[in-house]
Amino acid sequence: MITFDDFQKIDLRVGRIISAEKVEGSDKLLKLRVDLGPEIGQRQLVAGMAQFYQPEEMVGKQIVVVVNLEPKVFKGLESQGMLLAVGDNEPVLLSPNKEVPLGAKVR
């Protein structure tokens, strides 16, 4: 359990995937470039989604991103946030049900 104050520290924003490619030497990882709007800009994310999504089908999708997560390095690539998905066997990307401005806060 976390406190409500801890939960409020999580900064969730809507971004758009502008590029995606498989990470060399990995069956699981994709390198994504995500536009999070003018306040935050673009970020690189490394996500374990290659078994479930082809890179070309991810480009253009709006997704929800944790933007204030400490960066982590995977296969020599820095991930500057984390996308949110639901499900273990076939994860589905979390996204708004209609187009929203990039960088919009999830509340």
From TrEMBL:
It holds the Pfam family tRNA_bind. Its main location: cytoplasm. Keywords: Aminoacyl-tRNA synthetase, ATP-binding, Cytoplasm, Ligase, Nucleotide-binding, Protein biosynthesis, RNA-binding, tRNA-binding. It catalyses: tRNA(Met) + L-methionine + ATP = L-methionyl-tRNA(Met) + AMP + diphosphate. It comes from the Bacteria. GO terms for cellular component: cytoplasm. Coiled coil: none annotated. GO terms for biological process: methionyl-tRNA aminoacylation. GO terms for molecular function: ATP binding; methionine-tRNA ligase activity; tRNA binding. Residues 6-107 form the TRNA-binding domain. It is found in: Cytoplasm. Its EC number is 6.1.1.10. Homodimer. Is required not only for elongation of protein synthesis but also for the initiation of all mRNA translation through initiator tRNA(fMet) aminoacylation. This is Methionine--tRNA ligase. The lineage of its organism: Bacteria, Candidatus Gribaldobacteria.
